[in-house]
Amino acid sequence: MFRLLILILFIAVLVALFSSLWSLLKHPSGDGTTANRLVWRVVLSALLILALIYGFNTGLLHSHAPW
What we know:
The protein contains two helices and no strands. By secondary structure, the chain is mainly alpha-helical. It has one domain. Helix 1 (2-26) packs antiparallel against helix 2. The model has no long low-confidence stretch (mean pLDDT 92). It is 76% helix and 0% strand. It has helices spanning 2-26, 33-58. The chain starts with a helix and ends in a 9-residue tail after the last helix.
């Protein structure tokens, strides 16, 4: 369940990123929608990082790296 939350947050970050790119290409005049969408990307990225930190600290996630 926790991994699903992380996957959803990651997909939301990608959607916000490409949405802001689309807004920038469609309206290059700078009406503010691109900035708003980039703010959403930053907020979602911060939530994703916090979720990853929480997951590793509580043991819900663990690394499979050999070192």
